[in-house]
Amino acid sequence: MRRHQLNVQLKTPEQIDLMRRAGLVVANALAAMRAAVAPGVTTADLDAIGEGIIRDAGGVPSFKGYHGYPGSICSSVNEQIVHAIPSPRQVLETGDLISIDCGAVLDGWHGDAAITVPVGDVDPKLLRMAEVAEDAMWAGIATAARGTISGRGRLTDIGHAVETAVRAGGRYGIVDGYGGHGIGTEMHQDPHVLNHGRPGRGIKLVPGLCLAIEPMITMGSPRTVELDDGWTVITRDNSVAAHVEHSIALLDDGAWVLTAADGGRARLGDLLTARATASTSAPS
Length: 284
Fold this sequence. Notes:
This protein is α+β, with helices and mostly antiparallel strands. It has helices at residues 13-36, 43-56, 124-150, 155-169, 265-268, 275-278, and strands at residues 60-61, 73-77, 80-82, 97-106, 109-118, 173-174, 180-182, 189-193, 210-213, 216-218, 224-226, 233-235, 241-243, 246-251, 254-257. The strands form 4 sheets. It has a 5-stranded antiparallel β-sheet, sandwiched between helices. Strands 1, 2, 4 and 5 form a 4-stranded antiparallel β-sheet that branches. Strands 3-12-11 form a 3-stranded antiparallel β-sheet, with no helix packed on it. The N and C termini lie far apart (38 Å).
């Protein structure tokens, strides 16, 4: 985690504005896919919706063709944690929990976010797990904002905040080996952002740092298996998983959640940077 071992790309305010435009494309695509989730819908249907919105906005799906990945989204259902390939054979059923991960590149800058959505009536225990994942993500984002404002924040403070929130929420597995990352002119950049660990370590949290924060938790074991397709990651014990993510920019007065329609205002309050209201709020 030492700074000289990493290639960390800090962004200017103007570049962050461009990332916000890409982030809003992702937010719009996820909103449309969330609305479309229903019993009988296939994950291929969702993929087509997401890709259409990204391309209509002048963007390109970040995932499509990435190391040979065939889809525009990742659509992970139940025990599938992440990277599940959309398929016309994957038909959503009442009681399912689906995580939709979506990325877009616009004018050379990336946005990346994920949501977990219930299909029809879902076991309240699963809904609670998804809520805990969401709360943990926001705890990590708030911690990053506070650490940047104070000038004392370190990278591992984020993972510690995520882990603390998950542990407070219940007995869930925190998936190891997968986590968040830097983002900018590439979808995946340094640094890797763990969802657990001790605070106070790693690079300093400084203005211009842009990160994707993405907790993945399970109803059971955190251990994983990758399927023969070379992409789909499932829980080893077949327990249901949840995955959420937002891309954020850190500034000297707080954070801007680039992939949230409101920039993060509802969850961050005073930790929302003033730049979120002073700059571009919608793609043209």
